[in-house]
Amino acid sequence: MDEWIKLISEVGFPIVVTLYLLHRIEAKLEAVIQSIHGLTERVG
After folding, report:
1. How far apart are CA 29 and CA 35, in angstroms?
2. Within 13 Å and on the Cβ side, how many CA atoms surround 32?
3. For residue 12, which of 5, 8, 20, 28 is within the disulfide window of CB 3.0 to 4.6 Å?
């Protein structure tokens, strides 16, 4: 049991930070994709 608690405390924080950053990047990528689609509609 102590090994699991140690593993979660060591690995848990980086996992949470990674998921948070991926969530933020996903939102920004969606905005970029929408902009690209808008440009292709205006050009084409």
Report:
1. 10
2. 6
3. 8
Length reported for the chain: 44
Helix (H) or strand (E) segment spanning residue 38: helix 2-43
Residue 27 buriedness (CB in 10 A; 0-12 / 13-18 / 19+) = exposed
Question: What pTM value is reported for the model?
Answer: 0.55
| pLDDT one-digit tens code per residue, 6-36 | 877 888 888 888 888 998 999 999 999 999 9
The position carrying tokens 């440009």 is: 39
